[in-house]
Amino acid sequence: MAFFGTPDFAEASLRALHASAHEVVGVVTAPDKPAGRGQRMSVSAVKTAAEALGLPVAQPERLRAQDFLTLLDTWKADVYAVVAFRMLPEMVWDRPRLGTINVHGSLLPDFRGAAPIQHAVASGAERTGVTSFFITRDIDTGAVLLQRGCPIQDGDTAGTLYAKLMHEGAGLLVDTLSALAQGDITGIPQDQLATGDERDAPKLFKQDGRIDWRHPGPRVVDFIRGMTPFPGAWTTLNGATFKVHEALNAAAPLDMAPLAPGQCHTDSGTWWVGTASTPIQLVRAQLAGKPAMPAEDILRGYRYPTSELGSQGA
């Protein structure tokens, strides 16, 4: 089999495959690229792992390039496995005899899209998982092979859930390829699994992390959890960006006056913010140009007003 992937989420699957009975004949990952202030060349987690494992690595700029397609043919892989890689053209995914398998970080057809983990947490979902399926022309719509569920705990962020699903997905991929090789599995069309309540999970950008305090408190807390660590939940404080890393649905003091969305109340190092329902408590946040720190430490050193976050609640 040939493996396609780039970040650490995919690295876990590559290492699991290499440790299994399946032969990895080649690895495809993203080209090296400059990163950071010094613009030093950065390599993907998958490339680092593949080289450590002694596996052939390809880093095509163009997936339709003839020299890359020729290389794939020389590998003679029966199946391609894809985890956290860019969209493949049909001339690539249609090449192997047994097809091309993708592992997705949700229980498809729920949360189709590029950011299933963030959207699952932000939506307040209690359960998600990983799915293996055949790649077809339409993104994330191919026949489902195997699924493995995973509960979303109250304290989970997108980051902690990412780590859980990374390992669940690695095991699922190995099991899928084993079943496929033995002829013990056939795909189930996703329309047979649909309930009508499915949610989309489009790619997220920095601006998508802006907190809207006009939503109910529990929804705001879920949103912050879902945007942490990427793209990051943020609002504004005195016109500057203010990142929120952690917040709680906690009981406010009985004598505290009602707070409008975005309005703040601070008391003995505790920072409350109003929402459309009950206030929430900020636990960890980050001023512009500063490291993240407990809210009480920010209040201790910040010399400007903390009466409101955002503008008119957003």
What would you say this structure looks like, in words?
By secondary structure, this protein is of the alpha/beta class. The chain folds into two domains: 2-192, Rossmann fold (3-Layer(aba) Sandwich), CATH 3.40.50; 206-301, Methionyl-tRNA Fmet Formyltransferase, Chain A, domain 2 (Roll), CATH 3.10.25.10. It has eight helices and 15 strands. It is elongated.
Number of domains: 2
Number of DSSP E strands: 15
Which consecutive residue ranges, at least 5 long each, have pLDDT under 50?
Answer: none
| Main sheet specs | 7 strands, mixed
Give the helix level as a range of percent.
25-40%
Walk me through the topology:
Blueprint lengths: L1 E4 L2 H12 L6 E3 L4 E3 L4 E3 L2 H8 L4 E2 L7 H10 L4 E4 L6 H4 L6 E5 L11 H7 L4 E8 L9 E8 L6 H24 L35 H10 L6 E5 L2 E9 L15 E4 L2 E4 L6 E8 L5 E2 H7 L13
Parallel strand pairs: 1-2, 1-6, 2-5, 6-7
Antiparallel strand pairs: 3-4, 7-8, 8-9, 10-11, 11-14, 12-13, 13-14, 14-15
